[in-house]
Amino acid sequence: MLQRTLVLLALVLALVLSACGGEPKTCDDIADVTIDLMQDLIDDVEKEVGDMSVEELIATGGDLPSVEKFEEEAAKIDERAVELECSQATIESLVADRVDRLEANTPIGQFMIEAIRSGGL
Question: Model pTM?
Answer without folding.
Answer: 0.75
